[in-house]
Amino acid sequence: MSWHDYQLGNTISKTTEDIRLWESEKGIVEIDRDTLGIPLKLDDKERGYVFHGQGKLLLDTIVETEEGAIGDPVEKPLNKPFLMLGDREETQQHLTEVSEEDLTRMGYENKQALKDAAEDLFNRFFKNGRTYSRHRFSEDRGVIFAFQNQNDKLEILVAKGPKFVYTAKDIVFVSNRNKVVLKRPEEVVCSGNGKSVIIKKGRSVIIKK
Asked: Which end of the chain is more exposed for a tag (fewer CB within 10 A), N or C?
């Protein structure tokens, strides 16, 4: 199923309280009260949102090895529009109508200005050739986030329960319970089942038991 199957909705809402959109032992995605939202629809059903407000992304992207801890945690404020794709029906229960004051507070002259910003993010995400199946977003409760960094490049978080994949500039991190993989320009680190494998750029493989 391609990006052609998804559409931006026409309604604009705001959150009535702080909402935790995703949570596991290794990370959280939260948005604050009064965050603006425009729905993403598939077959006339809401399958996600473009949000803009205040929030935070926290990820434990550190790999523990016998050589010591490798990597750094991800701690990012969410103050730019970001996209969440997934079947999140509970989010709808915490949304209400927006006012002109709500739009002005976030720097928008009117509703169309917010829709234009959401459409730009929507197009950059879906038109980059990313395709996803209907099954992933309805039956298994997976979720995908597309965050904008300081250079407006997209950073992607794909999560399902405790499992997640995070890709950003110079880092790919995969976590599946006690198994993790960290890929950076200078090294690749794998850890799981009491073993660590470290591949340094220009150096030999180091395997620890």
From this structure: C
Contact partners, residue 136, CB within 8 Å, separation at least 6: 142
Q: CA 57 to CA 68: how far, in whole Å?
A: 25
pLDDT value of residue 166: 96
| Planar angle of CA 7, 9, 15, nearest 5 degrees | 130
Q: From CA 111, how far away is CA 12, in angstroms rounded? A: 8
Of the candidates 189, 165, 187, 188, which has an alpha carbon nearest to the alpha carbon of residue 176?
165
Helical H segments across the chain, by residue range: 89-92, 100-105, 111-126, 134-138
Read off φ and ψ for residue 108, nearest 5 degrees.
-105, 135
Average pLDDT along the chain = 87
Q: 113-139: per-residue pLDDT in tens?
A: 999 999 999 999 987 645 443 334 444
In the three-class reduction of DSSP (H, G, I as helix; E, B as strand; rest coil), residue 160 is classed as strand
Query: Is 35:59 a contact under the CB 8 Å cutoff?
Result: no
Q: Under DSSP, is residue 136 helix (H, G, I), strand (E, B) or coil?
A: helix
pLDDT more than 70, % of the chain: 87
pLDDT digits (tens, 9 = 90+) for 174-206: 999 889 999 999 999 999 887 889 888 866 566
Angle at 8 between CA 5 and CA 12, to 5 degrees: 155
Tell me how far apart the alpha carbons of residues 109 and 153 are, in angstroms, rounded to a whole number. 25
Backbone angles phi, psi at 25, to 5 degrees: -65, -25
